[in-house]
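TASK: fixed-backbone design
INPUT:
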């Protein structure tokens, strides 16, 4: 592949280009976008919400078997965007790390520590020639006993950080621009009620996609202070929020 001074530096994941880039890691980010799914995460004062598209690639597929939302523990949820097989591998590793932590210490793994553990594994995949980066972007949500509502995002490079609101996937940048306008001020990320957080996330997804989504085309996962368990909203509940958004607009 001819790219001037960068020619040949994309053949091995372990080699930096003269500009200091790892092309294979950058290609992993492109692979995530190529799936064509966008996910949004929003943190409120007593809840965290993740919303993603539910795309059924084939009419013969059972829709109940297609999901981007996974329960890692009872109280930690994962919204994963990217290639299906890679996501499945990440979910398996995250559940193993959480179960091992509980067995060793006797209490549930904190969200930030689980995100850190997974980021460590992702980073290892960027420095061995016999591995490739995971084509998966992960958002971990949970209510932490010390930190309260938590939203963390991991990327294929092994970077992770907490967010007030974030996005992943095909329309990531457009969604970030939308969220930056909605989530601002000194107390940003701590002032949304549960309903506001859900509706902000859904409205963001509808705006960046430029279409009105149906309830069956969305997956909405939530954790809240009054019910720390990770759960998905039913189609009727999602429909109520879509109606509220259309009436508000």
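OUTPUT:
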């Amino acid at each position: 592949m001819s790219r001037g001074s960068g020619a040949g530096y994309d053949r091995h994941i372990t080699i930096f280009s003269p500009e200091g880039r790892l092309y294979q890691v950058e290609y992993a980010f492109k692979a995530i976008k190529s799936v064509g799914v966008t996910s949004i995460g929003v943190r409120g004062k007593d809840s965290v919400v993740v919303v993603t598209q539910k795309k059924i690639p084939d009419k013969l597929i059972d829709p109940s078997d297609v999901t981007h939302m996974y329960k890692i523990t009872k109280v930690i949820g994962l919204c994963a965007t990217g290639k299906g097989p890679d996501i499945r591998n990440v979910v398996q590793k995250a559940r193993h790390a959480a179960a091992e932590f509980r067995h060793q210490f006797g209490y549930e793994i904190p969200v930030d520590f689980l995100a850190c553990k997974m980021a460590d594994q992702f980073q290892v995949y960027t420095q061995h020639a016999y591995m490739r980066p995971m084509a998966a972007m992960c958002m971990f949500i949970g209510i932490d006993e010390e930190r309260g509502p938590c939203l963390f995002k991991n990327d294929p490079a092994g970077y992770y950080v907490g967010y007030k609101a974030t996005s992943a996937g095909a329309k990531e940048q457009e969604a970030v621009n939308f969220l930056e306008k909605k989530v601002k001020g000194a107390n940003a990320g701590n002032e949304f009620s549960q309903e506001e957080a859900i509706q902000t996330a859904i409205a963001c997804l509808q705006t960046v996609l430029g279409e009105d989504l149906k309830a069956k085309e969305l997956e909405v996962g939530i954790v809240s202070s009054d019910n720390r368990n990770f759960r998905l909203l039913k189609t009727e509940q999602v429909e109520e929020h879509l109606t509220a958004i259309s009436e508000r607009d």
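COMMENT: The radius of gyration is 18 Å.
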